[in-house]
Amino acid sequence: MTDSLFSDATQRLDTALKYVSISEDAIERLKYPKASLRVSIPVRMDNGDLRIFQGYRVRHDDTRGPTKGGVRYHPNVSLDEVQSLAFWMTFKCAVVGIPFGGAKGGITLNPKELSRLELERLTRGYIDAIADFIGPDVDIPAPDVYTNPTIMGWMMDRYSTIRRQLSPAVVTGKPIALGGSQGRDTATAMGAFYSIQTMMSKFDRRPENTTVAIQGFGNAGSTIAELLFNAGYRVVAVSDSQGAIYSANGLDIPSLRHYREANKGMKAVYCEGSVCNIVEHQTLTNAELLTLDVDILIPAALENQITEDNANDIRAKWIFEVANGPISPAADGILAERDILVFPDILVNAGGVTVSYFEWVQNRTGLYWSLEEVNDRLKVKTVEATEAIWQTSQERSISLRTAAYVRALQRLGESLDAKGTRNYYLNGMGNG
Ligand code: NAD
Asked: How far is CA 311 from CA 236, 254, 303, 339, 369, in A?
């Protein structure tokens, strides 16, 4: 195992550091995760065999509050990946100004190979192994790739059993019946939608004259597609791992979602069966979707989809990164030269962690909010962050990604300084 992903992640800070005055002590602190835990989880399988799974939990930085981040169940999970994702979470929380630091967790497995009971035993075993590392005031897990509200419910239940007290605030993204928040399931897409709406009104663009292509039609991608469709945008193309579909007049997204749910995937819409009559379209490859001549492109699938191989072919005016890391650093430079504006993941997909924060607040106060209250508060946070990042990028002539890091670094630097750094003491601030 190398530490390459993590060092790539920390290197992306370098550009932003030129535009923010942050002490060297603070930068140094941010380059190392605060604590990394690796555990072995024994699980009795349905056939009686014992299997040992490898699990991780990393807390990157807790200067601004308890650490927060999802738990990923995936064959590629490694300590290096988890450390990198924890690092991004520190910046995402700071960008939107929620009082959390960054963390991430994961178990290396292919969840599709486990029965539901095996998954439950594995999840409870993971919590047994990390119980002393997490807690409502310490570190709060949430869902990520291949984990969901059911799994979060098991985690909360197991932690509560260990602590001998009901502890709903230890995990977010729970089922509503176990203390989950209204609007958590749609929060990532809703945050992205508020960012898009804020920018389109700034650019004086009306939805009916704005075309959109979306890569990935999963939880985040299909929800943002429907929000945009309902607001009057022309969503002309969507894709999933099976392929892409296109219609110049705009796709009927609610019908598409309905058929995807019923048929488990978009292959159901490749013109065999009744949906062809409902959703008129032509088929495209995934690669063709990315290079369509549209106003807005939304990558909502995987990392590294736009690289130096295809960045010169992108024709969208604006890219909103709903996925984490869909654009490589080299492609970032090419897109900037071509005046394509990229709204970065740490702003655009921060709706999920923002509503996770709201869930934690509701669990701790015992006062539960309506869907409208949740979305109103999410809108305030998202619009404020979008406006601020836009302003910083305009004032300093820097990319939106760099502006987002500048904003996060300013907040992190202030907190780290206030805890005591060389600058803090040299300036005599520590005497007060
Ligand atoms: P998901 O598993 O529900 O959906 C992923 C979608 O991408 C699926 O439709 C899949 O078929 C599609 N896909 C996979 N490979 C593809 C390819 N080569 N071309 C086109 N489509 C492809 O996942 P999700 O929760 O919607 O997450 C999507 C992205 O958004 C991830 O990068 C995730 O980290 C990020 N994100 C999600 C959330 C959230 O709350 N769901 C929060 C923050 C970030």
From this structure: 20, 31, 14, 12, 43
Pairing between β-strand 341-343 and β-strand 318-320 as defined by DSSP bridges: parallel
Q: Do 246 and 220 reside in the same domain of the chain? A: yes
Q: Which residues line ligand 1 (CB under 6 A)?
A: 188, 215-221, 239-241, 286, 300-302, 322-324, 349, 352
- The CATH code of the domain that includes 115 is 3.40.50.10860
Pick from 128, 1, 151, 118: nearest CA to 57? 128
Residues carrying an active site annotation: 104
Residues 29-49 have pLDDT tens digits of: 898 999 999 999 999 999 999
Decide if 371 is inside a domain. no
Residue ID of nearest Cα to ligand 1 atom 29 = 323
Cα of 77 vs centre of ligand 1, distance in Å, is 16
419 domain residue, yes or no? no
CB 294 within 8 A of CB 315: yes
Q: What spacing in Å lies between the alpha carbon of 413 and ligand 1's midpoint?
A: 32
Atom of ligand 1 at shortest range from CA of 302: 32
What residues make up the domain containing 161?
15-169
User: Ligand 1 centroid to 74 CA: how many Å?
Assistant: 13
Quote the pLDDT of residue 267. 52
Q: What is the CATH number of the domain that holds 268?
A: 3.40.50.720
* pLDDT single digits (tens) 236-290: 999 988 889 999 999 999 988 888 777 665 554 444 443 344 466 888 999 999 9
Count of the separate structural domains present in the chain? 2
pTM of the model: 0.92
